[in-house]
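Researcher: Structure prediction, please.
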Amino acid sequence: MVEVPYGKKHALSTVRPGTALAAGVAASAVLTGLIWLLGQRLHGIALLPDQGASWYYWKLPEPTVWTRLSAWAGYAAHQIAFWWMIYYAQTRVRRHAAGLHPINVVALAVNTGFVALHTLQTHLFYDGLAQDVSIYSSQGSVVLLLVVVLLMENRRRGLFLGRPAPLGREIVDFARRYHGYLFSWAGVYTFWYHPAEATSGHLIGFFYMFLLLLQGSLFLTRAHTNRWWTLTLELTVVVHGTLVAVMTSGPDGMWPMFLFGFLGVFVITQMHGLGLSRAARLLLAAGYAGSLMVVYALRGDLLGGAGETIRIPAIEYALAGVLALLLWAGLRVARLIRGAPRP
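Model: Predicted structure follows.
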């Protein structure tokens, strides 16, 4: 790669953050549209009958060495390339800019290229990583991403109603420094887990993954840390989870659990980092509670609904606590091995 004199101003540094984000979101929509358009060719592929919630339907009945190799090799190349770009940015660039660094353009191009490659791989071999790993690994990777964000943002917005959890600075700093590697894994792994199918659920998920890849490609820019943009990424899971639940189980299914569960995290934690007035936050909380009661009253299960909607927040906050404890233990062991004094 050609070395860039980062000490000097380059033309890309003048790109406005809003312009970069708008162009990236538009490109994500175009890529999703192309998957939808090309996906019409996949309708004739024979698949096994659905076997329940833990069964991933979109995989070949008889995979071959080549179908497996094409998916895993493509995923590995994409993952290694993304990790290398993050490492390069952290060790060679190291400074934030209002616009784009050249490495950001490289990252955007590389991720777009691998999106095209996976789409081609689907049409030639079909299978994604789902043939060999559990569906819960794909779902869990995104949940882990959301939990790490809770830890990273603890000092800025708190964890419970604006109050920070008692997390050591070392834990938060570690999560902030190395989160890019985890987040890029979550996006890349989940993207290659699925074939480039054109069902509504796939398309919504792909659009979300493209937004995460876009965010990952904008490291060390102001766009990457824009609080409204990062909140949008956190809240997109509300739309994705709710719509997929409606598509799979119908209007009488469990979609309120996803809608009010993820929105519960917004009310408890996420809205407190936006600089909103106390009155605005109270209004949002009241709107949330009122909507929840109306929906579950219409479903005839007001008491049961209240219990259902705490599942997702309970899981996220419990995982945040477990992860913080694991990071604390790991950092403490690392200090003991190095013989460094405790800060």
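Model: The CA atoms of residues 28 and 211 lie 7 Å apart.
Researcher: Thanks, that helps.
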